[in-house]
Design brief:
Shape: elongated
Number of helices: 0
Number of strands: 18
Largest sheet: 8 strands, antiparallel
Helix content: under 10%
Radius of gyration: 28 Å
Strand order of the largest sheet: 1-2-3-4-5-6-7-8
Length: about 190
């Protein structure tokens, strides 16, 4: 059978859509497509809506088919979806999930589920990396949340520091039992 083609626009290159009968969305012929400046920008197929495509569906920037998916041309990367009571973000394949700001990766979940902040190769459940003076801060409504509040754990060169920035104690426990207390005056109590 012959294809039925409907074109919208003034020429065969810009701003047109075409429908073709007898096509399932496979191959290079599409059931619905929209072009601008001689390149395909969107298509509707039997598998979903592809936005930002060329004639190759692997270059899709968005594929709506129950999920929101972006591809790098070869690997589908899953961006996110919601069920009735859960929201998900991640990848569909065995690839890390990166969080980027201004095109630069700031955090990575590797394929083992380890979180790297400042590194794309975390060694443990959580790895914090900074070239100089990485600081981990724990703060609450009592301590406040400025840079000089709460509990700080940091590495300055080869020297490690645990610092209670508040006028409180630093307690050490094992098996849920207090074993030592360093008070705000610097006195160490054992037992």
């Amino acid at each position: 059978s012959s294809d039925l083609i409907l074109r919208l626009g003034t020429d065969s290159v810009n701003g047109y859509a075409f429908f073709q009968s007898g096509q399932s969305g496979t191959g290079t012929t599409l059931p619905f497509a929209w072009r601008l400046d001689s390149s395909e920008k969107m298509r509707l197929t039997s598998t979903g809506l592809l936005i930002g495509t060329t004639s190759n569906p692997n270059s899709a920037k968005l594929n709506v088919n129950g999920l929101t998916v972006a591809t790098d041309g070869t690997v589908e990367q899953y961006m996110g979806y919601c069920t009735s009571n859960n929201a998900y973000i991640g990848t569909l394949n065995n690839y890390p999930l990166n969080v980027a700001i201004n095109g630069s990766t700031k955090a990575t979940f590797d394929t083992s589920g380890n979180l790297g902040i400042g590194t794309s190769s975390p060694n443990y459940v959580a790895t914090l990396y900074k070239a100089s003076l990485p600081v981990l801060q724990l703060a609450n409504s009592t301590s406040g949340a400025t840079a000089s509040d709460g509990l700080l754990v940091y590495l300055n060169g080869a020297n490690a520091t645990i610092s209670n920035e508040e006028a409180g104690s630093l307690n050490f426990q094992t098996s849920g039992t207090l074993r030592a207390t360093l008070d705000s005056s610097g006195n160490l109590g054992l037992g």
